[in-house]
Specification:
The protein is α/β, with parallel strands linked by helices. It is 47% helix and 11% strand. β7, α9 and β8 form a beta-alpha-beta unit. α6 packs parallel to α11. The relative contact order is 0.12.
Length: 299
Amino acid sequence: MSKKAVALFILLALAAFGAWWLRTAPESAPRGPRTGGKLRVVTSGYVPYSLAKQIGGEDIEVQMLVPPGTEPHHFEPTPGVIIAVKEADLFVYTSPAIEPWTQDILAGLDGGRALAAGPVEEDQDPHVWMTPYGALAMARRIANTLADLDTQHAAKYRQNLKTFEKEIAALHRAFQDGLADCKSRAVVHVGHLAFGELAHTYELDLRSLSGTSHQGEHSVKRLAELVRFIRKGQVRAVFTEELVSPELARTVAGETGVRVLPLYTVEEVSKRDFEQGKTYLDYMRQNLKNLQEGLQCKA
């Protein structure tokens, strides 16, 4: 047998062994904190990561699968990612509607070790965390699951949840009061339709470039419609998001003379924001500030 043939045989054997190990590795990872350690939680992206840290605090270790600065919808799990999830006490993801790639991971997991924090019906907007109480519902699911897995710290998880509930209530009031008196209620968003529930909750008129998916087409026709709408109304700013090229928003702004302001979906986080520990609440407060500025709201 030639050297090339031997090398090929070894590679095939290693691949076969790796596939066998992933299929047969024990599904029953230790429940509760490891000896001398903390509950190990792996999350899909930044939304569940931020909420898990908020609720778990210092009593859990949290790892995020989608690296900072990476588009989360089309992330492809590597064997190392699958192994990390298998070794965790809990895998927290948002929902298959937002993260279809999680299905590949869930297929090899014990159902009790995975939590869909933001489940939705088939025809529901999957961006459930984009309203304060939608995020709170996710946090409650995380808190209840952590308390079940780690009874030793259950009281702390529930106390952290109570603190978060107060912060969410304050955030909701801030949105209500901050958007109550504005010159315009038209939110022209040059991105995908992630802010539908937010607009509905606070009685804003949302005009978006594409649908709820990042795969939506940014057609010339739709772009022209937004430009005409801006020129006819009292729109002074257009909003863009972290997952969409700023060139689209700049094109609209250049045609109409309006400003460009960011709105954050919290789905993707920059490396700088990740290292600084920017939270869901931080992003939402910034969203409110930018909406107030763009809609010319009274303080």
